[in-house]
Design a protein that fits this description.
The structure is a homodimer. Chain A has about 900 residues and is of the alpha/beta class. Helix content of chain A is about 45%, strand content about 15%. In chain A, the strands form 7 sheets. Chain A has an 8-stranded mixed beta sheet, covered by helices on one side. An 8-stranded parallel β-barrel of chain A has the order 26-27-28-29-30-31-32-33, surrounded by 7 helices.
Chain lengths: ~900, ~900
């Protein structure tokens, strides 16, 4: 039997999205659960892939035969006839791949109209105006999508006719105008393609099917898949849906609309959506007419409203998920055209998750798994300070919540360009279209002057968690002049504006924003997550302030406290510099003695903030030259100093300029001393001497490859007095806390370890210091000693390292650099973008853990480490530790914890729970 | 039964060197094979380790009892009595560990003398002079070794008495003087230690035994073990030998001597050695009197000479190895005191290996295994140009062959200091002592004014393969004045001299040297090696000249040709710079088109030189900025250029200075053009423009960590036109050779590969270019495509990489940097010496492969690579590929080849054979 490429909705497998696409499978499912779906069928993704891989771009043999058979089945069901003047059947042709890619591929409506069927339709509907409207829509859409004719060729005629007829709204156009438009459109097609518009309906159908298939390999779709990391095993090829047309524009007992089964912006459990009376679906989506809120239907069309509520309930009860559905009312009959899981912002997802559990619709595991962890980042976006007394310039629709501020840019290309260059951009358009998508990615927010909450701009912005104000009709945008105006206010391109996607307000200038706070629902959800997760989630934090923030975010401890951040504080850096400039161990120790109590207080404060949670302190890591100015800077400073004439002006200028550039602010008195000339002169000479010393040291410490240089434990072994000071500060802090009866879990770890011998060397210092501190305080100290695993050789020697320590912490940033031989600083500017673009690497390995290479190292390390040290505690504190796919991998490796930046903690908590819950999904 | 710590030579196991030490085991063996060895016994290394680990430094209970029992056994054998005035027994106390460490530990002679036994000895020998001579020697040696009294305290008195008696040679001292000296020495001991010299002979014995044990943990011995990498499992603790004293200084029928069973310098099969009549052994070794060549004995003492020849033959027939033996003739009786395998220079080792095989004494495998591969490096040292018409200033003994040239330095400390700083040093001393050893390591050659061919200086220098002229009595050295003089010539410290250790000549200044050539014996030996080895030995060579050299050294092919070396040639660099400065692909291609025929000719020449051996060409590896001057240099050059006044002088100065510093010599005409002012002015302006462009590019290309930067395949993917040019040049060269009927084995490989995708990318270029070249030449090209394995991730992904290539080549230099996260350039200057000194790392991992870490990566790579690609060809081309222990590891990993620098090829060939021959030794 020949392979089947086409399935009627009554027959297709509603679960087989790979074959039928999301929409096709869904329509099968909808049909089969008894919703009133217009009859139709689906052509499989296999047919698409066959077509795209065929060098002549021919449809696989037999596909069109199957299509014809299925058209006949539809004809039977609808009692209409395709291509016949007698009650003609019209169909839509829509794409639909396994992954939802809203707006990315093409749709054709009203297919089946030609010079013969048009009169037939008029006869059947008895509505000439509707028919010509359908006809002109079909010609334009088919012309654009299937024949690649640019919209403007059509719009030009359309606008001219409208102007001539002196009408504003499309609906006000009469039959004659629409006839004229149709005729003009047919001429446009012939002019642009050199051929007449196809009359044969099966030819129309075949061209349309091919156009949809082609759209899969179009630039827009490819860009989208790359941005959203949709790989071939997630979706390969698009299916094509051929569905009987139903019309929302056959009169005032007709309507078309879209709905969310809950409020898409807030997640509130209420009817949500918009509709247009006497309109076709594309009018709603494209935002060409501003639609009415669904609530109006309750009074306008109460019976239909009831049906809609029933539909909504049926959908949610069946799908157990918020649904984004489309419907059309044709002469009082409600058809459900499509439904899919609703894309909502994170706040709405969280709220619905919690409420749907409370309603008994889903269980907690489902509630946790339906949220994309990274989306929670939206909840951490700033919102406008409610106390800021800013006056809104204009108000549009609150289309996607959150606040955003940036320069107005009036087209997507420029927005992309400037956004990539690091500018904050607000993309301002009359309305947006799928081809603007690249501009969205690089903008902070979107503002449109037309379209509703389900317009393209709104839907896409919500999906991305970007603030969006839509349909702000008070603004008129003049792209050519690169200006927008609100009444008499002119906004030039580049002017800064602020938008509030939660209220729809638009402001001139930058408005103060507030840090976001956790919603109650999110707290509940994350508490469920914590109960499910096996991985603990720690935060990377270096100061008590950062640690407090981390606790707010729900961190279960500090997985990485970088002590060098403490060294860099304004009040410590001069001491650190003195230590570095010292030429003897004794002189270094003098400086270190000054640092000791400061560091101890840091640690006491940190331990107390986190008590009783664990805090892991890493000993000094960066090379010493990082604490000194650059060679160039010192050369410049010395040149300026030496040119100083000794006059009051010269010295004063120097001092005032230095206050801004000098790394050691204590070198510069904030008030100029009284007997200025001499003091200035002396100060300058002292400064010269010091800078010369610094320059000498900088040159001495110069390294060709600092990333692989004299740092971490290598420094600790070269200058044991530095580590000794830090270890003492940690242990004395532990002792102080113990004395005060505070329960803490202190840990210390050694960076850049490559050999067990290095660890043993440091361990000796720890043991000695521990004895001294214990005998001084008269108490026993409890703490853990561990090592970073960030050097490849440490992985290879994990079995031996594990014998010396109580825990491992993967430093996957350095480990990835070493594993790839990529210097992150260099790679991200030089060749990584090219590597990602050309598909050599799918991700940036410094953001997403490279499980195949670096992950393989980690896997062996875990295995070997626990071989000699069963149950060894192992975590990760690299940046990737906050990335959901990396967290999943860490879970699978059976790590004990991940540690990430504080704002990623909620994401990591959810991801950790999902990793556990999805454990069995992959097997 | 209690543990036995002491063994009579008649009883000890002659194979158990670990327990009895080399010397003790040897004496057991010698005794047991019937040589006339003075009766004695050995105290085990176990007793030593027990003693050293005892915190009170006490001998293990029972050891002294066993010693007493064995002394009684000697008393019986010799009919002498220890500590008795009646025919007293004197013994020597000598160290001896499992590994020979000549001169490193202590020896005491004549032990058993005291105020009572001395008259007994006089009675027994009837030679008062001899007895007092023995007594004063004993007091001094015991004082120095066992009681830590510095020599100078004794020498002062000794010299004073000699002066007073007006004698030059020690032998001219009379009884009275020797008596006086003995008395003075006893006073020295009392003064220096606060106690009288010990009278009790067992007390003497116990102190002496402890002193020998202690010497194992003395600084000298520890330094020696570290330098020669003697680990605990090679030798742990020293044994102590107690042997009946026999005297070579009891009259003119007495003598003492040392012998080599073959010529120690050349390996020639002849009697070799020196002796002194009426002298004790230490006189020979210390070089205090210049001894006679052994050949003189044939006429002076013909019977004894015959006995000596018999002894030598017996030793070689038994030990199957060249022997270094010591003997004493006491009143006409020949005693063999010790024998050990002779330490010889590499030339002698090679010659004896080949000759001993020819004589049927050993087989080829033994011949190969007895030579330390690294020692062959000596054969690659330069020798003096025989045509150089230099006049020898003075001639000494040819103590260790080879020529050396450097600055005279008069003490070991300074020699070490300056040698470490990279200076060429000749260590010049009156005589050397074991405490000078650190100076040897850092000197190019050794020159002494006293001592023979078996003096300390000569033995140690030969062992190290350093040139040595010994006993150049014409030189007098004044260390305090930091001068030496030869007649009226004054040599100040720091003056350059040249020594010829093969002739004994010493020259002022630097004398031209010639490259060494292979001896016939070495060629024979290495041909045996090649037959045994499984690993092939390739060379790293970048030019046809270097390749020719490699073939001379016996390379079986080129394992690594670095194409960037070709880029750096004077005639190509300007083109390369143009290519780098180009801002478009097209402009780059113009420069690359110029390079293409040049590179193609390089490859043709290289392939032909090596034909039919394999040649592996690596595509461009270093980052582009390496071909440009540094930022600082450009800034300086621009500053000079801009200051130019345009005068003839200014421009002329500039041009002449630039000829030395400018990287692009073509920028500077060799003759100044005629209408100079204008041309100069214009040239300067053009130069400024070009330098500015270069500076801009240098800044654009700047990398924080160039080792991990934009290089290797990353460059090849960013600028595919570069790799395309190189691939085309290689393939066209292959085609040209094929056209000429030359059989070649070309290979190309890609550097810095981290992912299989990168390889596939380059492979596509190769496939495309191959098709083009094949169709142009009308022939099929045979070549191999491979990848460097020098990035850790490549190891992890070996299974996938192996699917794309035909060979792997480990770049263990970069791989070690990445595995350790050590930048070699930084590490070797900053912390590696400390890591080696403190024992954190035993070796420099960039010289000796780190088998535990990097080796583990390699092991997995081999396993995974051959899993998907059975029989995959795998080699190593890092610097470690020439190091014997690394070669052994590569053999064990079942690699196919090693590739190293050309001069290491002979060493690698021998090491590869040994790796195969010793395969079963380790199991």
């Amino acid at each position: 039997m020949a392979k089947q490429y086409v399935y009627l909705y009554n027959d297709g497998d509603g679960k087989n999205k790979h074959l039928l696409g999301g929409k096709g499978a869904n329509l099968c499912e909808m049909t089969q659960i008894g919703l009133n779906v217009p009859p139709g069928f689906v052509i499989t993704t296999e047919a698409c892939l066959n077509y795209l891989s065929d060098s002549d771009r021919k449809l696989t043999t037999g596909v069109m035969n199957e299509v014809k058979q299925n058209i006949q089945a539809i004809e039977q069901a609808t009692q209409k006839n395709f291509g016949s003047p007698d009650n003609p059947l019209l169909v839509s042709v829509r794409s639909g791949s396994a992954m939802s890619m809203p707006g990315m591929m093409d749709t054709i409506l009203n297919l089946g109209l030609n010079s013969e069927t048009l009169p037939g339709l008029v006869k059947a509907t008895n509505d000439e105006r509707f028919c010509y409207d359908a006809y002109r829509r079909f010609i334009q859409l088919f012309g654009k999508v299937a024949l690649n004719i640019s919209d403007e060729h059509f719009d030009e005629h359309f606008d001219a006719v409208k102007k001539q007829a002196n009408v504003k709204e499309d609906v006000d156009l009469g039959v004659d105008e629409l006839k004229e438009i149709s005729e003009l459109f047919l001429i446009v097609v012939k002019e642009q393609t050199g051929k007449p518009f196809p009359e044969d309906v099966y030819e129309q159908l075949e061209i349309a099917i091919k156009a949809v298939f082609n759209s899969w390999s179009g630039k827009r779709a490819i860009d989208y898949r790359r941005e959203f990391k949709i790989t071939k095993d997630m979706a390969d090829g698009t299916a094509v849906n051929i569905v009987t047309m139903v019309f929302g524009n056959m009169g005032n007992d007709c309507a078309t609309g879209v709905g969310f089964s809950r409020n898409a912006g807030t997640g509130e459990n209420e009817m949500y959506g918009e509709y247009l009376v006497n309109a076709q679906g594309e009018d709603v989506v494209a935002g060409i007419r501003t639609p009415k809120a669904i609530q109006e239907m309750e009074t306008e069309m109460p019976d239909l409203y009831k049906q809609l509520v029933e539909l909504r309930n049926k959908l949610e009860n069946h799908y157990k998920e918020v649904q984004d559905y489309e419907y059309t009312i044709e002469k009082g009959i409600l058809y459900c055209l499509q439904t899919r899981n609703g894309k909502m912002n994170a706040a709405a997802m969280v709220r619905t998750s919690v409420e749907m559990v409370n309603e008994g619709l889903i269980d907690k595991k489902q509630a946790l798994c339906r949220i994309v962890p990274d989306s929670l980042e939206q909840l951490l976006h700033p919102r406008l300070d409610p106390n800021a007394k800013a006056e809104s310039l204009v108000r549009g629709l609150a289309a996607s919540p959150g606040a955003a501020c940036g320069k107005c840019i009036f087209d997507a290309d420029r927005a992309e360009l400037l956004g990539t260059a690091g500018e904050n951009i607000i993309l301002v358009r009359e309305e947006t279209k799928p081809e603007d998508i690249h501009g969205f990615f690089k903008s902070k927010g979107i503002l449109t002057s037309r379209g509703g909450k389900t317009s393209h701009a709104a839907v896409v912005a919500r999906g991305m968690g970007k603030a969006c104000v839509a349909g702000a009709e008070g603004i008129s945008v003049d792209v050519k002049a690169r200006q927008a105006s609100v009444g008499e206010h002119i906004i030039n391109e580049g002017d800064v504006i602020t938008i509030n996607g939660s209220t729809g307000d638009v402001y001139l200038g930058e408005i103060p924003t507030l840090e976001p706070e956790f919603s109650e629902e999110l707290k509940i959800l994350l508490s469920w997550a914590d109960k499910e997760a096996r991985l603990q989630v720690m935060a990377n934090a270096d100061t008590p302030e950062a640690a407090e923030k981390a606790v707010e975010y729900g961190a279960m401890g500090i997985g990485l406290c970088r002590t060098e951040r403490m060294f860099n504080d304004v009040d410590r850096l001069p001491i650190v510099v003195d230590m570095i400039l010292a030429n003897t161990k004794e002189a270094r120790e003098v400086a270190l003695d000054t640092l000791l109590p400061i560091q101890r207080d840091d640690f006491i404060s940190l331990f107390k903030t986190l008590a009783p949670r664990p805090v892991t302190v890493r000993l000094l890591d960066p090379p010493l030259h990082e604490f000194l100015p650059s060679e160039m800077q010192l050369i410049d400073e010395l040149a300026s100093l030496r040119q100083l004439s000794g006059t009051v002006n010269g010295v004063a200028n120097l001092l005032s300029s230095m206050r801004f550039t000098n790394p050691n602010p204590q070198d510069v008195p904030s008030l100029l001393p009284a007997p200025f000339n001499e003091m200035g002169e002396q100060m300058v000479n002292e400064l010269i001497a010091k800078k010369e010393l610094m320059l000498k040291k900088v040159r001495e410490l110069y390294e060709v490859n600092p990333m692989l240089g004299h740092r971490g434990v290598r420094l600790g072994i070269s200058y044991p007095e530095i580590y000794t000071m830090q270890i003492r500060a940690i242990l004395e802090a532990v002792a102080e806390c113990a004395k005060q009866g505070i329960e803490i879990q202190p840990e210390m770890m050694v960076p850049q370890v490559a050999t067990a011998e290095e660890l043993k060397y440091v361990k000796k210092i720890v043991d000695k210091t521990q004895k001294e501190v214990e005998s001084h305080y008269g108490i026993k100290l409890n703490f853990k000693f561990g090592t970073m695993i960030e050097v490849v050789r440490a992985c290879m020697r994990a079995e031996h390292l594990a014998e010396v320590v109580e825990f491992f912490s993967f430093g996957t940033n350095d480990l990835s650099q070493a594993a790839f031989s990529f210097s992150r600083e260099d790679a991200e500017n030089k060749f990584l973008p090219l590597y990602n673009d050309s598909g050599i690497l799918q991700d940036n390995p410094f953001e997403v853990l490279d499980t195949k290479g670096v992950g393989q190292l980690m896997k062996m390390t875990v295995e070997w480490g626990r071989k000699s040290h069963p149950g060894l505690k192992i975590g990760i504190c690299g940046e990737q530790g906050g990335h959901p796919s990396s967290i999943k991998f860490c879970h699978e490796l059976d790590l004990n914890y991940v540690s990430c930046s504080a704002p990623r903690v909620p994401i990591a908590r959810l991801a950790a729970a999902q990793a556990k819950l999805q454990e069995n999904d992959d097997t």
